[in-house]
Specification:
This protein has 653 residues and is of the alpha/beta class. Among the domains are: 117-257, 3-Layer(aba) Sandwich (Rossmann fold); 529-652, ANL, C-terminal domain (GMP Synthetase, Chain A, domain 3, 2-Layer Sandwich). Helix content is 33%, strand content 23%. The strands form nine sheets. A seven-stranded mixed beta sheet has the order 5-4-17-16-18-19-20, with helices on both faces. It binds adenosine-5'-monophosphate-propyl ester.
């Protein structure tokens, strides 16, 4: 992959939006962007108050921001119901019969929900949750496939003030337990299964497994997605109920009650540098405003757009750019249940053609897989409806950017490379499609209100092309409020490096034009297919296997996935390393965390390279994996011979 700094620095291709695009865009030129950006930084109160007026409020705020680093409160005194902005308001503004969700299941069935129908479904399900005794601030876990019901469940929680925590359907039963315990969830919403690559994902079975260990869930509401086509699911009497049966017993009318601006909206778990995932807490008004304004300006959403974000609702991208942002903008969006390569790599392009998608948002890892599958599939489809393309989740290498631009965008669509994180809630650095000159590989400039900078170790701002740490120097509306139940970790992880500033954990640099080039994580977090994965999580999954004494995990550049997972394992006692054991350990990690965490390569070693004080030299393993060599002095190691042995093993690969 050539997303190295060298290729960044040599990148001199610049792409500007067409005159036609700029003319119709909300932000038409750089002067307008600069003016608005300056206002957003110098007078955030005025800037954000103006934007916030476009949301549905039941009571106006009295103060825009209260900032006592590292704790922010936005729109104090205001009251709103997030669901009203996303659904109810469209029943009054002429969009009632407009398609909100056009859904396609992996087997091919389709369903369209208008805003009125969505409202009805959400109200009805809100009443189901109320009937089950769910109260404001109760935590409700959602573990579902990509069906409209996943979005309905999220909105219904928001509507009654319950805090949802969505867990990606690819996570294992054990991962569910960790999250349930951390947030002490009271209810679980799941499905009898979901379709993925032609098979059925046994979601309810995983839930049953998890609930053997965590006993706090009183109600499991099961949406019937698979029905008779899957193995019958077991329903535990007194705990498990069918969504459709409960819905049939309640009214489809529900008045949205107002909650404080800072009422918790959701907890979303993400990986950090320890084995324990962090529960990122987002609250109501500021988060919604971030999702809303970024959709409005960065995707430049219009009433006649058909927007499609290919993320899963289990990730932050699915929260901000499927559930909340697009709906608050009243756009029509496509939602697809399954895999990009089912039945073949033409599936996405079929969907773009079929529904005349105009805005398309995906991940570089998917683009790289499409490149590998060849140009024939996209070229056999009519992609002329597309007008804007986006990417998210990892640095995009210039080759992938160019392919996306020419083969998918037909050379006419601006590309917004959007940098942000679970913690930031909404896009932070991105081109604005009607004005920002783009270069393959850079997320370009900060969004309104985002005071991004790159600092060196001493806190000085880095000059052009000097690498440093990416920080945000001022609070922004959609920022995380804390790590659920762990304020200390919140302060230590994000606010310790520089006084009053948020440290993102990414290394980056700017070029002479001020464009931000994100290099990648500075901590022990990998980015595998755009998904965050802590090396410590994989290590603890490995050592939970009975034959493993010790494990060390590092990343390696991977052609499709961005980063692959490489594990070094020391076995207990006399256990012999075999190919079968290698496979078993991979599957074990899959079982403990989920398939995305399975190591690509496992190397057995009689001992880990360690310092004399007994610390594993991960830096050395990283270097060995990246280059096949060790440049520094290894004499300080307790066991230098180990390195030779590992070097030989890696060479054989
Ligand atoms: O390293 C950055 C990378 O993804 C991390 C955030 O991961 P997560 O919280 O799972 O959210 C992903 C979706 C927003 C960041 O710290 N990242 C995200 N977007 C980009 C990126 N790296 C480079 N370019 C991007 N556009």
């Amino acid at each position: 992959m050539s997303n190295s700094i060298e290729s960044h620095l040599q990148e001199d291709r610049v792409f500007k939006p067409s005159r036609e695009f700029s003319k119709n865009a909300r932000i038409k030129n750089m002067a307008q962007y600069t003016r608005m950006y300056q206002e957003s930084i110098e007078k955030p109160g005025i800037f954000w108050a103006r934007e916030a007026k476009e949301l549905a409020w039941q009571k106006k705020w009295t103060k825009v921001l209260d900032w006592k680093a590292p704790y922010a409160k936005w729109f104090l005194g205001g009251k709103l119901n997030v669901c009203e902005s996303c659904v109810d308001q469209h029943l009054k503004n002429g969009r009632a019969n407009k398609a909100a969700l056009i859904w396609e299941g992996e087997p091919g069935e389709t369903r369209t929900l208008t805003y009125r129908q969505l409202h009805r479904e959400v109200c009805q399900f809100a009443n189901v949750l109320l009937a089950k005794g769910i109260k404001p601030k109760d935590r409700v876990m959602i573990y579902m496939p990509m069906t409209p019901e996943a979005v309905i469940a999220m909105l219904a929680c928001a509507r009654i003030g319950a805090v949802h925590s969505v867990i990606f359907g690819g996570f294992s039963a054990e991962s569910i337990v960790d999250r349930l315990e951390d947030c002490q969830a009271k209810a679980m919403i799941t499905s009898d299964g979901g379709y993925r690559r032609g098979g059925v994902v046994p979601l309810k079975e995983n839930v049953d497994e998890a609930l053997k260990k965590y006993k706090g869930v009183e109600t499991v509401i099961v949406h019937q997605r698979i029905g008779n086509e899957g193995a019958p699911v077991k329903m535990k009497r007194g705990r498990d109920v069918w969504w459709h049966e409960e819905a049939a017993q309640v009214s489809a009318k529900h008045e949205a009650q107002a909650f404080d601006s800072e009422h918790p909206l959701f907890i979303l778990y993400t990986s950090g540098s320890t084995g324990k995932p962090k529960g990122i807490l987002h609250t109501s008004a500021g988060y919604l405003l971030g999702a809303y304004t970024t959709c409005k300006y960065i995707f430049d959403m219009r009433d006649d757009d058909v927007y499609w974000c290919t993320a899963d609702v289990g990730w932050i991208t699915g929260h901000s750019y499927i559930a909340y942002g697009p709906l608050a903008n009243g756009v029509t969006q496509v939602m697809y249940e399954g895999a990009p390569n089912h039945p073949d790599f033409g599936r996405f392009w079929d969907i773009v053609e079929k529904y005349s998608v105009s805005i398309f948002y995906t991940a570089p890892t998917a683009i790289r897989a499409f490149i590998k599958a060849g140009n024939e599939l996209p070229q056999a489809r009519d992609l002329s409806s597309l007008r804007l393309l986006g990417t998210v989740g990892e640095p995009i290498n210039p080759e992938a950017w160019m392919w996306y631009h020419t083969i998918i965008g037909g050379g006419r669509c601006p590309i917004v490379d959007t940098w942000w994180q679970t913690e930031t809630g909404a896009i932070m650095i991105s081109p604005l499609p009607g004005c920002t000159p783009t270069k393959p590989g850079t997320a370009t400039l900060p969004f309104f209100g985002v005071d991004a900078a790159i600092l060196d170790e001493t806190g000085e701002e880095c000059g052009p092309n000097e690498g440093g740490k990416l920080v945000i120097r001022k609070p922004w509306p959609s920022m995380l409020r804390t790590i659920y139940g762990d304020k200390k970790r919140y302060r230590d992880t994000y606010w310790k490096d520089y006084q009053g500033m948020y440290t993102a954990g990414d290394g980056a640099r700017t070029d002479r034009k001020g464009n931000f080039w994100i290099v990648g994580r500075l901590d022990d977090v990998l980015n595998v297919s755009g998904h965050r994965l802590g090396t410590a999580e994989v290590e603890s999954a490995l050592v939970s296997h009975e034959v493993v004494a010790e494990a060390a995990v590092v990343g390696r550049p991977h052609e499709i996935k961005g980063q692959g997972v490489v594990a070094f394992v020391t076995l207990k006692g006399s256990t012999a390393p075999t190919d079968a054991l290698n496979g078993e350990l991979r599957n074990h990690v899959g079982k403990v965390i989920g398939a995305i965490a399975k190591p690509d390569e496992i190397y057995f070693t009689p001992a880990m390279p360690k310092t004399r004080s007994g610390k594993i030299m991960r830096r050395l393993l990283k270097e060995l994996v990246a280059t096949g060599e060790i440049s520094g002095n290894t004499t300080t190691l307790e066991n230098p011979g180990i390195v030779e042995d590992l070097r030989a093993q890696l060479k054989k690969k």
